[in-house]
Amino acid sequence: MNQPLIAVQGLSKRFDVSRSMADVLTGRHPQLQAVSDVDFTLQRGETLGIVGESGCGKTTLGRMLIKLIPASEGTVLFDGQDIAAMDRTQELAFRRRAQLVFQNPFDALNPHFTILRSLREPLHNARVPFEEHAGRIAEAMKMVHLPAPDHFLQSFPHQLSGGQLQRVVLARALVLRPEFIVADEPVSMLDVSVRAGILNVLREVRDRMGLAAVFISHDLALVRYVCARTITMYLGAVVEDGPTRDIVENPLHPYTKALVQAVPIPRVDQSHAPLPITGGLPDALNPPSGCRFRDRCPVAEARCATEVPRLRDVGGARRVACHFV
Amino acid sequence: MLLEVRDLVIDYRATRGRVRAVDGVSFDVPAGAVVGVVGESGCGKTTAVRAITRVMPSSAVFAAGSISLDGVDLVGLSEREMKKHLWRDIAYVPQSAMNALDPVWRVGKQIEEVLVDRGGMNRKAARARAEDLFAMVGLEAKRLGDFPHQFSGGMRQRASIALALALSPKLIIADEPVTALDVVIQRQVLDTFADLQKQLGLSVILVTHDISVVAYVCDYVVVMYAGKVVESGPVADVLDTPGHPYTMGLYNAFPELAGEERELSPIEGSPPDLLDPPKGCRFRARCPFAIAVCTLDPPEHIIGTGHVAYCHRASEAQDLRETAKRTETWVGVTSE
Question: What is the rounded distance in angstroms from the CA atom of residue A264 to the CA atom of residue B238?
């Protein structure tokens, strides 16, 4: 049996939010459900895109996958092992095998560290013998197409361009030869002309190292370029899951349909038809009953207010959470 | 022509000398048209359009150029005379909607303040106008009493558009109006904006780094690189038959959702240091088609009606476009 690298079961995250005086007096502890009941598996070498609007829980989900924040409920199995129940040695090994690529390269590196020191730090933390450092760093720099001469490694973050910095951030994640990376909006801070370079590096890394990767973005066009499979999230829940190609060509959930239609294209002859949905994300503290998307949904009926749609298999390796699919 | 900008030169005083952020930029905005100004961060697009409003940081120096709005030379005006034109003739929607709105004032009050102070309305009329403006941009009148932090990103952007429309200006300058928004909200705000523009016959300058936004709402486009205009013209012409290699490169670097997936090619390297810009074409270090003559200033080459490109090889544009479509063309161009 082929064991998936990541198996997520019933994963939820609630955050405490600040209490108003009325909450204190009535003894209430309001909580925000950032992620609710997410299930999926990720095979070795598979790339999964997570798309959705800001506030849909995609970043929180990504952080739970690599144990940056604990889950409120549910489990994440990494290579069959529950990441919440690891002992110190197991955790150290896990931290070597799973890495995060941060969104903002301008913040992700310590401004007082040289590039060399930033790249060496994860090796040091993972107890990689010192003799191997230079080789590992050269290997990672080559993978992200950065020159590795001494003067480059001795420079500081402020001396590099945004594109170079993001490559360094990526190299720092790859230097431990991980099996799994989570990249959270890795190109959103970069100019279009350098974005393509980072996306191409991500594709190469995926193909050459056989990495499993989760790529978080609000832009389906970027996700399509890097990921074979995509999950759409809405207000903390997965509403659609399937091969990216099928999702882009034939989205099934009404929310995914709107997302696909909303992505602008660089051509003049494009549809200006109004989007099928209106309004913005509802208040996450008071989500609508039943289907969370129903107040923006063009096909909602009475049933949607009472019955929460389950994420069901609809064939073709696709899952959709909608009563009408 | 509603707005004519000619040979605009703007410097910034820096510790190491003067940075020429905008170097001889010219463009026109016809009445009732939407003109996109597109380019990467640091290309001078924001500086160029802010110079029109004269709202600039204190380190900025207006070095040369002329700006004429409806035949009035804005450069020659005194501060006081210029003030009369702001809000009434030209309104500016800054980059982040959070900057347009004062966090400690209710949104409705801020709109009323402009109507009273600049428009000479009484409070009651101002209130009614504020309600109309909110309705125009698709916000409920009851939200006028809210503070900016109570609004979502999309609502703040709608409110700052309402603020800009307050005194029915002829020209609206919107700087990256939808950049920080999610795709769905972005599309909704752009649709509202485009509807209002048509309804009111507004002229708009839209600054953005996103060519798909330009394709969606603009009539004309001005492509800037390192402080200079490299290409300009009607949107359909510039996007379909680009004459400058930079424009070709931008298109190839942009992932799109429609149609078959295509390989993306980055433009390698980074823009030149504007403290010491290279002679001749500023794009040549990153250009796969650069030849010896590119060390001289690029000439204006007319490609079609209103469509110009500043490139020595613009006459070969048709062949260059074919070559530019291949990914390998863009690999290993710079020595960086």
Answer: 17
* Tens digit of each residue's pLDDT (9 = 90 or more) over A259-279: 999 888 888 888 888 888 877
SS3 B153: helix
* C-alpha–C-alpha distance, residues A137 and B301, integer Å: 48
Q: Is the pLDDT of residue A307 over 50?
A: yes
Report the distance separating Cα A240 and Cα A319, nearest Å: 6
Contact yes or no for A265 and B249 at CB 8 A: no
Nearest CA in chain B to A200: B264
CA distances from B63 to B10, B50, B95, B227, B276 (A): 5, 14, 24, 14, 17
How buried is A41 (Cβ within 10 angstroms: 0-12 exposed, 13-18 middle, 19+ buried)?
A: middle
> Over the stretch B294-313, which tens digit does the pLDDT of each residue have?
999 999 999 999 999 999 99
In degrees and rounded to multiples of 5, residue A156 shows phi and psi of: -105, 160
Cα–Cα distance measured from residue A262 to residue A276, given in angstroms and rounded to the nearest whole number: 10
What local confidence, expressed as pLDDT, does residue B128 receive?
95
pLDDT tens track for B87-138: 999 999 887 766 788 889 999 999 999 999 988 999 999 999 999 999 999 8
Average pLDDT over residues B150-178: 90
| Backbone φ/ψ region at A171: left (φ over 0), alpha (ψ -120 to 50), beta | alpha
Cβ pair B264:A196 closer than 8 A: yes
**The pLDDT of residue B15 is above 50:** yes
Cα of A261 to nearest chain B Cα, Å: 9
What chain B residue is nearest to A265 in terms of C-alpha separation?
A: B212
Q: Which member of A197, A248, A258 has the closest CB to residue B266? A: A197
Is ipTM over 0.90? no
Report the distance separating Cα A11 and Cα A270, nearest Å: 39
Q: What are phi and psi of B16, to 5 degrees?
A: -90, 5
DSSP A297: -
* CA distance to B228, B231, B285, per residue, from B277 (Å): 11, 19, 11
Cα separation of B173 and B90, whole Å?
7
The answer to whether B179 contacts chain A (CB < 8 Å) is no
A115-125 helix and A130-143 helix, angle to the nearest 10 degrees = 120
**Would you state the pLDDT for residue B336?**
44
Find out whether B247 and B231 touch, Cβ atoms under 8 Å: yes
Which one, of B275, B255, B266, lies nearest residue B334 by Cα? B266
Q: Label residue A227 left, alpha or beta by phi (over 0 means left) and psi (-120 to 50 means alpha).
A: beta
**Side chain identity, residue B295:** T
Q: How far is CA B97 from CA A101, A219, B9, B53, B159, in A?
A: 28, 21, 27, 17, 8
- H helix or E strand, kind and range, residue B187: helix B183-200
**Which pair of tokens denotes residue B161?**
């558009």
Tokens encoding B281: 């074409």
CA distance linking residue A219 with residue B256, whole number of Å = 10
- Residue B71 has a CB neighbour count (10 Å cut-off) of 8
- The answer to whether A32 and A285 have CB atoms below 8 angstroms apart is yes
Percent of chain B with pLDDT over 90: 70
